[in-house]
Write a structure and sequence with these properties.
335 residues; mainly beta; Neuraminidase; 4-stranded antiparallel beta sheet; 25 strands; globular
């Protein structure tokens, strides 16, 4: 389940059950700290990422490719509702906000992948839209996005070679890499390689490059390879496909920032109050969860547990953590 939404197959296999749970009103996860977890909104089909502006919160929805009626899009969270914005693409995998502009990473899902720039917010919608970049030929797609201190967009590239059942080794353009993108010209510059599925990036204090969740292969058994978080630096190579599938071959490659057990599936990342939070789609031992660890790396510990369905989206704003699972429910908690 680790291709386009950590794969599109993830949505196909899990979404029907998740929809049934959502209709019943799933129980909220529990914070290990004991603090209350609140429901912000429901009805976002496969929430993938968040973006925050002054007084506004947006969430991306991937939707369900198997069911064209269950489209995703960009949603505004307001007064307990998720309101789909006009002009939303059908499948959205990433959002980033900077200087009055919302950047939208839209899966082409059969058409070219694009990153859009929306501006001119009038209180209900963005009135201006332009295409920052369209994926070139022989290209799978952009994953999640973030804006760096240099003003450029950073994006992981969706896992490559569609001829393999597990999408193990990309042969398409920019496959297995993270790139920077000029927000004005759309110029793509490769930065780092050796990642199977670099999913969502986040910039955090104390780190020059973004941290990126990288999902490992599904077809090598229950205990390998490890899933990873990597820190992107110019020219870094994290070794895929040799590493981490074959640990003995990892020594000549750059080390990851953090590792997680095989198939735990790190998805969304967020930094809050000196800690890094990681959404684990499958979790480590007891199902989907959000874990926390120091921004400098080290051991992780559970922060939110007991999700009714796999968790994908994660974000932080104004001292609160926001997360969304495959029931389509958005939750918030002060850790």
């Amino acid at each position: 389940m680790k291709t386009m939404l950590a794969s599109i197959a993830l949505v196909v296999l899990v979404a029907p059950a998740a929809v049934a749970i959502a209709a019943q009103g799933p129980p909220a996860p529990k914070a290990v700290s004991g603090r209350p977890v609140t429901v912000v909104a429901r009805g976002v089909p496969t929430p993938t990422s968040f973006a925050f502006a002054t007084g506004r919160a947006f969430v991306a929805g991937f939707g369900d490719e198997r069911n064209p009626k269950a489209k995703g899009g960009v949603y505004l969270l307001e007064q307990g509702r998720a309101v789909r914005l006009p002009g939303s693409p059908a499948h959205v995998v990433g959002l980033a906000y900077r200087d009055g502009t919302l950047y939208v990473s839209a899966c082409g899902c059969g058409a070219p992948s694009r990153i859009l720039a929306w501006s001119g917010w009038d209180g209900r919608r963005f009135t201006k839209s332009r295409v920052v970049v369209t994926g070139p030929k022989n290209f799978t797609g952009f994953n999640g996005i973030a804006v760096g201190g240099d003003g450029k967009l950073y994006a992981g590239i969706s896992v490559g070679d569609k001829k393999t059942d597990d999408y193990t080794h990309g042969t398409t353009r920019y496959a297995n890499s993270v790139v920077s993108i000029d927000r004005q010209t759309g110029e793509i510059i490769p930065l780092a390689t050796g990642m199977r599925q670099p999913w969502q990036p986040v910039f955090v204090p104390g780190h020059a490059g973004p941290l990126v969740a990288d999902l490992g292969q599904e077809n090598l058994g229950k205990k390998r390879p490890l899933d990873r978080i990597v820190e992107i630096g110019k020219g870094a190579d994290f070794g895929f496909p040799v590493c981490p599938a074959h640990p003995a071959g990892c020594q000549k490659y750059d080390e990851p920032f953090a590792t997680f057990p095989a198939h735990s599936s790190p998805m969304g990342l967020a930094a809050l109050r000196g800690k890094l939070y990681v959404a684990l789609f499958n979790g480590v031992d007891k199902g989907p969860e959000v874990v926390t660890m120091p921004l400098s790396g080290g051991k992780y510990a559970p922060a939110l547990v007991g999700f009714a369905a796999p968790v994908v989206a994660l974000g932080a704003h104004s001292g609160r953590l926001f997360t969304g699972d495959l029931t389509g429910t958005i939750y918030s908690v002060t850790p």
